[in-house]
Amino acid sequence: MPNTEDTKPIAEGRICPGADLLVGERGFRFKIKKGGKVWPAFVVRHTSGVAAYVNRCSHLALELDWDPGIFFDIDKTSLTCATHGALYTADTGECIGGPCAGQPLESINVGEDDQFIILMDIDCSLTPDDDNSSST
Questions:
Q1: Strand locations in 8-128, DSSP E?
Q2: In this model, does residue 99 exceed pLDDT 80?
Q3: Higher-pLDDT residue of 58, 10
Q4: φ/ψ (deg, to 5) at 17
Q5: Is the pLDDT of residue 63 over 70?
Q6: Domains, the chain, ranges and CATH?
Q7: Which residues are CB-neighbours of 59 under 8 A, at least 6 positions away?
Q8: How far apart are CA 32 and CA 110, in angstroms?
């Protein structure tokens, strides 16, 4: 009988299986509760590891992805806002071009064990994504 706890990424801070994230490819969307509000978030794998951010452009409070989970630019190196083209480094969320005017993405502290991407941020918690809509 399989251990069902291993198949539920949200259990114990598990965001998603680490093997699901490939460098420069589709990210994983999830939701966090922070400061009494629910926020859309995402995690991606870049050349140095994994990074997670609140899914909100620093230029204008809109979600970044072109289609659900598509955050990288065409070169698969930087994160880009689908609405106005703001560019961010994948590893730090630093603004490197476009209308974000030096304002970084809001990062979320995550880690990775041998199976999962884990939420490590003490200021927020995972919340179920019941309907795949985003609250801002």
A1: 14-17, 28-34, 37-46, 49-54, 78-80, 87-89, 95-97, 107-108, 110-112, 116-119, 125-127
A2: yes
A3: 58
A4: -65, 135
A5: yes
A6: 4-127 (2.102.10.10)
A7: 81, 84, 86, 98, 99, 100, 101, 103
A8: 12
CA distance 118 to 95: 25
Higher pLDDT, 136 or 103: 103
What pTM was computed for the model? 0.86
Give the pair of three-digit tokens for residue 122.
Answer: 């003490």
Which class for 59: exposed (0-12), middle (13-18), buried (19 or more C-beta within 10 A)?
Answer: middle
DSSP codes joined into one string, 55-77: S--SSSS----SSTT--B-TTSS
pLDDT band at 5 (very low <50, low <70, confident <90, very high): very low
Residue type, 25: E
